[in-house]
Write a structure and sequence with these properties.
- The chain is of the alpha/beta class and 332 residues long.
- It has one domain: TIM Barrel, CATH 3.20.20.
- It is built from ten helices and ten strands.
- Strands 1, 2, 3, 4, 5, 6, 7, 8, 9 and 10 form a ten-stranded parallel β-sheet that branches.
- Helix 7 links the parallel strand 6 and strand 7.
- Helix 3 packs parallel to helix 4 and helix 8 packs parallel to helix 9.
- It starts with 21 loop residues before the first helix and ends in a 6-residue tail after the last strand.
- The model has no long low-confidence stretch (mean pLDDT 94).
- The structure holds S-adenosylmethionine (SAM), 6-(5-methyl-2-OXO-imidazolidin-4-yl)-hexanoic acid and iron/sulfur cluster.
- The site of S-adenosylmethionine has 19 residues, from loops.
Amino acid sequence: MNLIEVENQQPAVISLRYDWTLEEIRDFLEKPLIDLLWKAQNVHRIANPGYKVQLASLLSVKTGGCEEDCAYCPQSMHNSSDVAGQPELDVQPVLERARAAKAAGADRFCMGWAWREIRDGEKFEAMLSMVRGVRELGLEACVTAGMLTDKQALRLADAGLTAYNHNLDTSPEHYGQIITTRTYQDRLETLHKVRSAGITICCGGIIGMGESIDDRASLLKVLANMNPHPESVPINSLVAVEGTPLEDLSSVDPLAFVRMVATARILMPKSRVRLSAGREQLTREAQILCLQAGADSIFYGDKLLTTGNPDVSADRELLSLAGVDHSWEVVE
Ligand code: SAM
Ligand code: DTB
Ligand code: SF4
């Protein structure tokens, strides 16, 4: 019998780790791409059998006029891009949009508020009604609205909130170049409150903001050493919006996006790794490589918060071309 020796055999089980070193993570980010993809694929196949891609739709409920000075963000009042004068949405129109997202095939509905922090009052009560309404539709509900108190986190949990999105955005070392109005520590404390209230965490970052490979490794190190890992890890590539301080940065190499996704998958085997902002700049082939690298969610719908996203028909075609399973049924 002719035998072929199997090289580079991967283990059949994987354990979750919370003690990754910067060197280990940098080694993954810099591995020959073909080896990195092989490793990421193996981890993904073992940890998430069935290769499902979750579709999440986004809606900006309160747009622009935010007090924070995030250098990438079109909604900061510190940036001339600030999208002023857009009406804040009420509960019913938001639920209409959630219903439409469900009919189009989404199974998670994410709502954004351009706030520094949540304040008690009518607007917070409306947020709670939106969360309840989205959950009643049978969708997962995610909110991103800045910092919050323990009590607000508990009330959101009570309303049935599935996840709270609060990104670390970049490494602790690079952070000061990007945001000065709130600290890394503030962000970690917000995440701690969300976790303590029993809400799952959606936390990731952005590449393409002038950071080094070490910065990317360092961001992933903070995320991957959280115990438990964030259930959802959005990987964004900067959408350089005119009027923001980062407007002139050129877009990152699509393969850097693939590497970031693959490394996140290896470090956090069971987390949902979300291909987030920046997909419009990626070819179909680059997106398929990201799926191959272990991305298992996309934002689905023609718009992110204020910027564009591939249209729904292109995404349906992408997923069917890739042949991956998606956890939805479209109601035409
Ligand atoms: N104000 C809330 C906060 O900062 O947590 C919620 C909204 S904020 C727009 C949500 C996330 O979107 C940011 O943390 C950032 O990671 C991402 N984001 C915003 N603008 C972006 C851009 N131009 N390119 C890529 N990602 C962006
Ligand atoms: C995340 O990490 N990316 C999404 C979601 N979480 C809220 C938002 C991307 C926003 C891109 C810029 C915009 O459309 O305004
Ligand atoms: Fe934009 Fe959120 Fe920063 Fe406000 S806190 S400027 S909405 S990213």
